[in-house]
């Protein structure tokens, strides 16, 4: 299969990729989809009803589609232009020099958000088609407008790795370019992908390391997702070792003020392309680093169910808190209203100073809620502006003879059903399955990167 | 000369040390001492008189002894305990396993400030002796007390490298130790050496990288001396390359908040001891890094005269500004005094709010003074508390028929004599002698590390 070409260096051996990612082992798709079906059921019976009853989506603009529950882990590639993001994807998916390779080059070549996913045969899918198909988990992207959908492309490829993960290639960041030139909200789109990515590769080219304003902006957007970030110092074999060390140090130096965590990020130093490394360089290190990165990727694949369950559970925790808050607003409103009161005046007073009525404090005190999970109070001003308080019912009235109470159902999902589901896959796999520390299933944010 | 010992690894070849440091070339000591004599003369005739007339030493506690003018460049070794500072000095000076080697070990072994300097034969000099000898440039250390002098040791060794530089070994920093346990002001002593060092090696051990409060304190003391700092990640061959890279990155990550400059510091990754590197490690890199560090050291040796002249010139600039300020205080005082005024009340008013009388502004406006070189105004409150304003004479009265005016003399030294002296050695050496950019001879601080 190797391409004979005098202009290009010989290809590297790539069996370590298949081995590390276990691409030749069959995935236990039965267990996998059974668990996802169960997860979908819990979501629809225990979380969704409360979400709808208290219009959670209007607060967070974060809706969970079935496509999102069943979707594969997403690996997002970010970074300046021409650092080798598309080249890396081509390499991992054996697309280099094929008819369907992502276009690469020394100038900014990727102007689209490109979702690379599994398909029976290679074909591309237009953005408007992807957004229309709710099973694909990209339907929420429609809100960024038709201009953006023209910059969204899907590519289906029958590669084994894509049975396990999807890749998202992004336009390289160009310093000193104006936002409006793009015709769509680039940063908002990035944020959407960042919020959903299971792994975020931020790629750099050591020969043109330039941390400017656009990149600073990007790292502001990455805040809170530090444990998903992996930095890649690509094309590492294009520098002599001493020079590479300087650049490697300078990269940490530049990133330290941008990533506000105590522990340094994991930086992989390697050259992610199919060709032999430059002979005069530290080839051993680069191969080891590539394998370490693949192991990291494999971890995300192995833990995809755990992560998905933890994700739904975290969402459920937020929905419950929201419901408790709206209930408290409503109860306070009802308590304050007399026959002669002006409903609007009374409620405005509550919304403008919720602390006066202990709205948030009471939630913290009465239930097992972490203060880190409370939404900010300003958001509720807007929320009740759109959704009149009178349109909601108290939690105590959200019960039915057959179905029980919505609050009890979501609490049971959080404390019992989802943990049991998590345990079931843990025991089926191996004894050292990730604890709540790593999947973040606890209510308190346990981010090991948190500054203390 | 190699030691045969089954317990220790074989010795490394060390010809690169002699070659890089040009230890086998004779130093042109005639030119060297002639220039220093000329510098001493300029200092004594043009700077010293003004210094004394306006008691500059009482403001800055910074007196320049003849010993300091003629002293060799000083290389200061700082860092946590047991990182290999003494081992590195033993290595560079071929003391390893000799009778006079610095004591090294896995526990904190260096409890003294050890000055290693040239001598005709190997012998040690006690701290009280060093402090008493004004030709040695360490006499100002007496002010740190007798307890400290017991912790100050000199070692004279007839090594060629010590004809060019002196080394200062320091007690390793121990986190969580109380200042008073030492019995002398450790930080003040460190600061004294830091202020005078031509090169500051901050050494780290990659197997126990721990940046704690004591080290944070150290880097606060290093502020303003960023261009003298070189970080050394020592014992680099005790880790596998991937692990070393992690530690190397973590070091930059930890130092970034402590060193407030845009450019990362130069970090040398190597293993500074006489034995062969661990065979499984990146030996090429370590040797290259060692040579780079030696080149750095050689630069300091080559530029020692330039640096010394620049140092005296900077001092002269400060003395001149001080004299101008005292003169202005005095002039303002005289202008405000009437026959009926209370001298103390009048002067207190000036000292308490010098801006009201444009003391500092007038200095900036009338003469070619950079605002970065102005001392802080609070210091003058204390200064005039000890030195009554009436004890000074106006600058216009500091003139004599034969000697001219003190102000004119120092200004001539700053603008003419010292630059000419600098040029004379530059032309004698090679055409690319360091410009004012690197020696800092300009009045504006041109620190390339400055955050902008």
UniProtKB/TrEMBL annotation, chains A, B:
Domain Dynamin-type G per the UniProt entry, residue ranges: 69-310
Keyword Glycoprotein: yes
Domain of life, per lineage: Eukaryota
Keyword list, A-Z: Glycoprotein, Membrane, Sarcoplasmic reticulum, Signal
Membrane topology recorded in Swiss-Prot or TrEMBL: Peripheral membrane protein
Subcellular location: Sarcoplasmic reticulum lumen; Sarcoplasmic reticulum membrane
Matching InterPro entries: Dynamin_N, EHD_N, G_DYNAMIN_dom, P-loop_NTPase, TRAFAC_Dynamin-like_GTPase
Keyword check for Manganese: no
Entry GO MF terms: GTP binding
PROSITE patterns listed in its UniProt record: G_DYNAMIN_2 (PS51718)
Coiled coil: none
One annotated Gene Ontology cellular component of this protein: sarcoplasmic reticulum membrane
PANTHER family: SARCALUMENIN (PTHR43681:SF1), TRANSMEMBRANE GTPASE FZO (PTHR43681)
Protein name in UniProt: Sarcalumenin
Organism: Latimeria chalumnae
């Amino acid at each position: 299969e190797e391409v004979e070409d005098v202009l290009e260096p010989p290809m590297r051996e790539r069996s370590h990729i298949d081995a590390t990612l276990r691409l030749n082992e069959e995935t236990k798709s039965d267990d996998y989809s059974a668990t996802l079906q169960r997860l979908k059921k819990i979501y629809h019976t225990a979380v969704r009803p409360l979400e709808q009853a208290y219009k959670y989506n209007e607060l967070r603009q974060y809706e969970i589609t079935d496509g999102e529950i069943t979707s594969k882990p997403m690996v997002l590639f970010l970074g300046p232009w021409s650092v080798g993001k598309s080249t890396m994807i081509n390499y991992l998916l054996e697309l280099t020099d094929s008819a369907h390779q992502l276009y690469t080059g020394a100038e900014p070549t990727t102007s689209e958000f490109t979702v690379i996913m599994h398909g029976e045969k290679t074909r591309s899918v237009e953005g408007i088609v992807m957004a229309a198909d709710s099973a694909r988990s990209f339907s929420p992207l429609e809100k960024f407008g038709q201009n953006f959908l023209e910059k969204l492309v899907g590519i289906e490829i029958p590669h084994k790795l894509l049975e396990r993960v999807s890749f998202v290639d992004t336009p390289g960041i160009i310093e000193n370019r104006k936002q409006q030139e793009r015709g769509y909200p680039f940063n908002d789109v990035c944020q959407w992908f960042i919020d959903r990515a299971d792994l975020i590769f931020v790629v750099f080219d050591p020969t043109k390391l330039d941390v400017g304003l656009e990149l600073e902006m990007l790292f502001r957007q990455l805040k809170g997702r530090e444990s998903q970030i992996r930095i890649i110092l690509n094309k590492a074999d294009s520098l002599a070792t001493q020079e590479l060390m300087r650049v490697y140090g300078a990269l940490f130096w530049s990133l330290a003020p941008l990533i506000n965590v105590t522990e340094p990020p994991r930086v992989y130093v390697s050259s992610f392309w199919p060709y032999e490394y430059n002979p005069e360089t530290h080839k051993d290190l680069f191969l080891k680093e590539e394998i370490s990165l693949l192991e990291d990727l494999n971890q995300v694949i192995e833990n995809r169910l755990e992560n998905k369950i933890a994700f739904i559970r975290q969402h459920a925790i937020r929905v419950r808190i929201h419901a408790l808050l709206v209930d408290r607003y409503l109860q306070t409103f009802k308590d304050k209203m007399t026959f002669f009161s002006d409903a609007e005046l009374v409620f405005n007073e509550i919304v403008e100073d919720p602390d006066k009525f202990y709205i948030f404090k009471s939630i913290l005190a009465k239930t097992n809620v972490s203060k880190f999970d409370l939404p900010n109070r300003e958001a509720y001003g807007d929320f009740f502006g759109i959704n009149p308080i009178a349109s909601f019912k108290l939690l105590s009235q959200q019960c039915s003879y057959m179905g029980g109470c919505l609050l009890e159902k979501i609490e049971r999902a959080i404390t019992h059903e989802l943990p049991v589901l998590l345990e079931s896959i843990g025991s089926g796999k191996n004894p050292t399955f990730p604890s709540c520390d790593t999947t973040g299933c606890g209510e308190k944010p346990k981010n090991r990167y948190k500054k203390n």
